[in-house]
Backbone:
């Protein structure tokens, strides 16, 4: 029973990571830009949602305000900063977007102060439901699962069924030819970047009620997000989905069961400590093993 | 226009008034203002500054100048700032440090140069035991002590099956050791999490399965916010009691809200304390900053008053080091926590209390005093200090 509940926890963490990594991998796959500041848009989403939800008392209004805010912030950053970096080296991109992290952290501190913001679960998602006899699961975490699945479906339909999606895929393969065919590739890039940051903002909104809304909150999830896209294959949204769920499961199950397993072999105190240490490394060990066998990730995107 | 005029006047008058009073004594504050933990340094600084402002720029009647610098929680940076304060500004009194790792990097080096260090928060075991120093004073608590209070409280409550959760780093393990020093019951489980962990779903599910009498948690800062929110959402709030050291200061309560109600936490101070010094402090702090002071602000304020008492004793003459030290040891100042004195190792011997988070009449979330756990309690390392 506990295994089932922990698996559900892992799945839910995975979905959260998917919302973050989908945007990041999309931007890299299509624009070939490494955006370290992705976590900042997650933070912007959470802050705007928390502020609006506090003022209006409505979680939904907070969500509706946060998505465009994160999306627009992303597009502004694309226009002002990233546009100058497409033809530069990856190292320049890393440096510039790393600088953006500090900029956004300081900006939130100036606007909202150092005090973490309060954001509550909406009353209609509070409480828990009994999924199976004996397994109570918070309703809000189920809502996160659902939101992740909706987003995955939306991205699938966007890419496979719409004209915009077709142009995006074509742009990823050959920027010049798509441009020659009369598609405004610059606008397309801005839109893709805005979509990516909007998804990060959505992850921030969903995280608001369960995590601390504070400056720098984006960095803690960013590292796992990078692990996800490396495992999934950089640039592949499908890879991000599978990678995120794998990482979520590995992380949660290791934290839940490793100390117990180690106790079979070691004494309790040593097992608790070793378990804690190994559990916090588990994701990275998993990534290293994975890359040893699949160096390009799960769904490698062919370089053009 | 008037405002500009006033500003200009101030600028003209300020050097004048200083010249009359003589050279102010410089106090260097090395504290953590950036990073997620920055609000701790902000509280300490604001409490300290309040004492200076209430004295109209003086502590103990002696004009002081407060220099503040942000260590960014980095030991290396803390050391550089200390160096700069001592070399360039000729500072003889340092204070401010929030984190033990910064204090351990700064304190041994500066006390060797004859500088005084008054810690308003950091109290690592090494500086309380073998590594104690004649020039180092701590006005808050030794790191383990607040967890010892919770350990004693758990024993007093008759809990016999406690679940322990703390991050896997030095202060986490020190706190658990402090808890176990006074807790006599059994342990239902002991979990060490990653430092800075965000999601506690796995730990909470395992905890529920273990069905303990109570949970001891030491998760400072954002980790505590995450844990408390998720604990309430899992439906465990009020079902299995939570207790921890100083875990729920006022600013954290603002971020957690009702999910924190019921948490028992330990402290040497509460804003409710009804003594003249504390009434004055709390009222003045609220008036100046528009918020209720936290434990950390009270420690900053007391550090300032302590320094003031010693400055008064030497008439502001920092060359009289021995007299200054002797005055610090007396701790002759009206502490906001009531009774206060130093042990041989220059760490406090004081009373400790438990508080509980409750909903106040006007719908706010506040800490209410539950009762006293320790009277005149020294820290566990004092005996190892070679000072006389």
Residues:
């Amino acid at each position: 029973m506990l295994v089932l509940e922990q698996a559900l926890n892992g799945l839910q963490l995975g979905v959260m990571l998917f919302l973050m990594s989908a945007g990041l991998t999309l931007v890299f796959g299509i624009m070939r830009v490494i955006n370290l500041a992705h976590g900042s848009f997650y933070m912007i989403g959470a802050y705007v949602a928390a502020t609006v939800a506090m003022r209006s008392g409505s979680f939904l209004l907070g969500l509706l305000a946060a998505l465009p805010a994160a999306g627009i912030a992303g597009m502004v950053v694309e226009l002002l900063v990233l546009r100058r970096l497409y033809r530069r080296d990856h190292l320049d991109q890393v440096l510039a977007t790393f600088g953006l992290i500090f900029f956004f952290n300081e900006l939130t501190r100036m606007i909202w102060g150092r005090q973490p913001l309060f954001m509550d679960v909406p009353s209609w998602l509070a409480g828990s439901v009994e999924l199976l006899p004996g397994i109570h699961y918070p309703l809000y975490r189920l809502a996160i699962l659902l939101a992740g699945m909706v987003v995955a479906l939306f991205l699938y339909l966007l890419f496979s069924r719409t004209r915009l999606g077709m142009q995006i895929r074509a742009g990823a393969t050959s920027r010049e030819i798509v441009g020659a065919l009369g598609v405004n590739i610059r606008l397309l890039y801005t839109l893709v970047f805005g979509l990516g940051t909007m998804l990060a903002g959505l992850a921030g909104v969903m995280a608001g009620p369960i995590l601390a809304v504070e400056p720098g909150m984006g960095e803690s999830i960013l590292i796992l997000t990078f692990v996800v896209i490396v495992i999934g294959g950089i640039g592949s949204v499908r890879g991000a989905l599978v990678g995120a769920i794998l990482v979520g499961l590995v992380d949660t199950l290791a934290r839940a069961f490793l100390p117990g397993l180690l106790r079979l072999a070691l004494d309790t105190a040593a097992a608790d400590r070793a378990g804690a240490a190994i559990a916090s490394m588990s994701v990275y060990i998993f990534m290293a093993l994975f890359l040893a066998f699949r160096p390009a990730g799960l769904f490698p995107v062919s370089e053009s | 226009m008037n405002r500009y005029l006033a500003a200009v006047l101030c600028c003209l008058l300020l050097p004048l008034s200083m010249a009359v009073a003589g050279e102010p004594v410089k106090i260097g504050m090395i504290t953590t203002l950036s990073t997620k933990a920055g609000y701790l340094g902000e509280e300490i600084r604001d409490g300290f500054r309040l004492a200076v402002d209430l004295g109209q720029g003086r502590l103990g009647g002696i004009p002081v100048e407060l220099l503040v610098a942000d260590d960014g929680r980095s030991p290396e940076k803390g050391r550089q700032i200390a160096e700069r304060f001592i070399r360039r500004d000729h500072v003889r009194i340092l204070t401010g440090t929030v984190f033990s790792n910064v204090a351990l990097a700064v304190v041994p080096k500066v006390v060797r140069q004859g500088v005084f260090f008054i810690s308003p928060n950091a109290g690592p075991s090494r500086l309380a035991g073998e590594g104690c120093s004649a020039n180092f004073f701590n006005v808050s608590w030794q790191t383990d002590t607040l967890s010892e209070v919770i350990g004693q409280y758990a024993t007093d409550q008759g809990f016999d099956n406690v679940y322990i959760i703390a991050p896997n780093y030095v202060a986490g393990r020190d706190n658990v050791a402090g808890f176990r020093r006074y807790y006599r019951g059994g342990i239902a489980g002991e979990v060490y999490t990653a430092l800075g962990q965000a999601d506690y779903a796995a730990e909470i599910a395992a905890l529920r399965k273990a069905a303990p009498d109570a949970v001891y948690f030491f998760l400072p800062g954002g980790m505590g916010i995450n844990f408390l929110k998720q604990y309430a959402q899992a439906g465990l709030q009020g079902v299995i009691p939570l207790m921890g050291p100083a875990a729920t200061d006022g600013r954290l309560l603002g971020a957690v809200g009702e999910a924190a109600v019921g948490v028992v936490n330990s402290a040497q101070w509460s804003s409710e304390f009804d003594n003249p010094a504390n009434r004055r402090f709390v009222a003045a702090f609220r008036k100046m900053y528009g918020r209720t002071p936290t434990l950390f602000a009270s420690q900053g304020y007391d550090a300032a008053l302590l320094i003031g008492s010693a400055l008064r004793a030497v008439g502001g003459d920092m060359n009289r080091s021995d007299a200054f030290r002797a005055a610090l040891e007396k701790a002759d100042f009206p502490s906001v926590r009531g009774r206060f004195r130093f042990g041989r190792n220059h760490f406090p011997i004081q009373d400790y209390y438990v508080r509980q988070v409750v909903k106040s009449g006007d719908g706010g979330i506040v800490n209410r005093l539950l009762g006293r756990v320790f009277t005149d309690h020294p820290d566990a390392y004092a005996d190892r200090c070679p000072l006389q």
